[in-house]
Specification:
The chain is mostly helical and 132 residues long. The protein is built from seven helices and no strands.
């Protein structure tokens, strides 16, 4: 999870060619150069991601489009009255998926807020928008 969540997006947003070029040009050291090149692009990516998640993700989760479509399909294809009533009930809330999503977002905010301070207000907007 850490590899998919933090390491791959950080390294895949910058080409290896640009890292090598910046390393040869800069005299401050390899670690400084890699941190400057990687964080400038991946930091802005995660800020955009954390800003778009509450603006688009939360309303779509509240609409529960998949469950509505499935419920209507089951009601139309239910042969008995009892099955129609069972199909009309709301489905269960997927706690496992939501907990994993929130843990991933919390990890992104926690790790990147130390290096890119603009991630912290974006994470506050994300978590504040999902609370009732």
């Amino acid at each position: 999870l850490v590899i998919n969540l933090l390491i791959l997006p950080t390294f895949l947003l910058t080409s290896l060619n640009s890292i090598i070029q910046e390393t040869w040009r800069d005299e401050h050291g390899v670690v400084n150069t890699i941190a400057r090149v990687l964080l400038s692009q991946s930091g802005s990516f995660f800020v955009n991601f954390l800003l778009q998640a509450p603006l688009f993700g939360v309303p779509l989760e509240l609409l529960r489009i998949e469950q509505r479509v499935l419920r209507r399909w089951r009601r139309r294809h239910a042969p008995t009255r009892r099955e129609v009533e069972e199909a009309s009930e709301a489905g269960p809330f997927d706690f496992v998926h939501q907990f994993a999503w929130m843990a991933c977002m919390f990890t992104i905010v926690l790790v990147y807020s130390t290096m890119v301070p603009l991630v912290l207000p974006a994470g506050l907007l994300l978590f504040g928008g999902q609370l009732p």
